[in-house]
Each structure stands twice: as C-alpha cells, then as structure tokens.
Amino acid sequence: xxxxxxxxxxxxxxxxxxxxxxxxxxxxxxxxxxxxxxxxxxxxxxxxxxxxxxxxxxxxxxxxxxxxx
Length: 69
What we know:
The protein is mostly helical.
C-alpha cells in the first residue's frame, strides 16, 4: 500500500501576492529547491518544516497538507 502527502503550497503562494518559492523558503528556513520538491510531490517535508510552512500562511497544517492512502 502506497501513501502520498499532498499539498496546496503553490496555490497558497499565488494567493499570498504571488509569493516566490525563495520568499517562502526564506520565511521557513529551507532552500528554494526544497520548497520546489515539496510542491512537486517529490519530497515529504519533516513535521517541523510542515508546521513552519503552515504557519507562514497562518493556517493549520491540515489546511496545507493532506494525506492519501
């Protein structure tokens, strides 16, 4: 059984005055490449980073990330 973490980061960045991946990365202490990989579904963030991303958008973690089996 495979699982996948989904996210709404790209849409949230767009809705936040078209925030760039670099701007988000700077806010959460990550690299632009990490943000890109998370958005593309190629990398699952650590729990700490997921919380930091959610807080950057002033949202709860489940409003940014989803879990599908």
